[in-house]
Amino acid sequence: MNWFGQLVVYAVGIFLVYFLFFTKPRRKKPAKPSKSSKKSGYEDLLRWTRGDREQAERLIALEAKRHPTLNRAAHIRAAVERFERDNR
């Protein structure tokens, strides 16, 4: 094999090492909550937390601590907005 063939083999090897070790695997993002759903934002928050009710309740409690004068629905909306903003 001449020097050009060796160069091509090295280049392909370097590309494969880079591709396998330095590219991030693509993860699916959770489905975005629909804006038209008027039920409760709690279902949207559960979707964002992948069904983890304890995490959803902790997020709601955090918003309640930050804004004690708001009602639960407002705390849920704020938790959804904060979760979306923090996980972009």
- Helix-strand makeup class: mainly alpha
| Number of DSSP-assigned strands | 0
The major beta sheet can be summarized as: none
Ends distance: 49 Å
Number of helices in the DSSP assignment: 4
Q: What would a concise description of this structure say?
A:
The protein is mostly helical and 88 residues long. It has helices spanning 3-22, 41-48, 53-66, 72-86. The longest helix has 20 residues, at 3-22.
Could you give the topology of this structure?
Blueprint: H1 3-22, H2 41-48, H3 53-66, H4 72-86
Helix pairs in contact: 2-4, 3-4
What does this structure look like?
The chain has 88 residues and is mostly helical. The chain has 4 helices and no strands. The protein is rod-shaped, with a radius of gyration of 23 Å. The mean pLDDT is 81.
List the main descriptive attributes of the protein structure presented here.
single chain, 88 residues, 65% helix, 0% strand
